[in-house]
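Entry 14: structure prediction run for H-2 class I histocompatibility antigen, Q9 alpha chain-like. Input pasted below.
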Amino acid sequence: MMQHVVLFLLGAHLASAGTHSLRYYYTAVSGVSDFPEFTSIGLLNDQQFTYFDSNTKRTVPKTEWMKQSVGADYWDSETQIDIGYHQSFKNNIQVAMKRFNQSSGVHTFQQMYGCDWDDQTGETNALQQYGYDGEDFLSLDLKEMRWISPVKQGTLTVDKWNKNTALLERDKGYFSTECIEWLKKYLQYGKSSLKKTVSPQVSLLQRSSSSPVVCHATGFYPKDVTISWMKNDQEHHEDVEVGQLLPNEDGTFQKTSTITVTPEELKKNEFICVVEHQGKTFREIPKDDSLPIGIIVGVVLALILSAVIGVVVDKVYQKKKGFKPVNASDDGSNSSARTDPQA
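Run finished. Output C-alpha cells:
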C-alpha cells in the first residue's frame, strides 16, 4: 500500500533506535459463519494501526496518532483497496480449494508482507508471502525476483506470475523504495506514542488444583518480554510451554507461559513466575487455591479473540519476517496499499 512520497529524514526523532518494521496481514476465511470473510490489519513496530473487515467494509485507524495524522481521503482510498482485496481473496480461496481437491470445509487463504529498516545502519529487508490452511503456499524471492512455491498446487500461479514482468518490476519498486518511505512516514506520525513504555500486569491462572498454571502478562509495551519459571530459586524449564506474543486492542501486548505441575509438587516446592520487561522484574507465586472457572474461561476467550483479531496469520509465518506490497496507483494516490493479481 505505498505511494510515491518524499523520503523522511527522521534522524534522532525516530520512535526508538534500531530496527523498525511495517507489516500488513490479509486473511480470507471460508466455512465460518460467525467470522468476517476477509480481514486486513496493518502493524508498525508490531503495533496495530489499521483494521478492515468485510462486515464493516471500512478501513479504520487503531491508534490515536494515526487518526490524527491523515485525512478522509486516506481512509477512503484504503477502504477501496481493502474492498478490492476482499473480492480477490474470495476468488483465491476458491482457486486454492480446487487445487487441493476440496469442495467444502473451513479454509484460510492468507497473505503477509512488509519491510524492515535499521535507522542506524540503513539496512533494509522485505518479504512477501501467501499461505493456505496454515502452510506456505507462495513466496517472492526478492533477490532473484521470482515467485516460488513449496507445493505442487502453487505451480500454476508461480508460472503465471513469473511471466508477468510488469508485476515483478512493480514489486521490486515497492519493496525497495515505497514500503520504506511509508515506514518512515508512519514512524514520524507515531513517534511520541511509540516511545511509550507500559509495564505488564501479571496474573496466575489455574482452573483447578490439578490443572496447569498459566502465567499471564498483559498490557505491556514495547513487545519485548521474557517469561520464565523458577523452582526453589533455581531456573526451571521442565514441562513449561511459552505462548505466542499477541496484540491487545489498545496497541499493547500479552503473552503467557504455562507450567504443568502436580498439586503435591506445588505444596512441597516454591514455584515463581518471573516476568522481565524493560529492565523491570515482576514475580508471582502460585497459590494453593485455584481461581473460579468463570475467570479462566473469560481469560481464555480474550486470548483467543486477540489471536484472531490481532495476528492470526502470524502463526502461519512465525519463523519468517513477512510482507507483501500494497500497490500504489500510477497516479500517486495518498494510500499505502496496492492490489494484486488473482491466483
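Notes: Confidence is low (pLDDT under 50) at residues 1-16, 290-333. Will compare against the previous run tomorrow.
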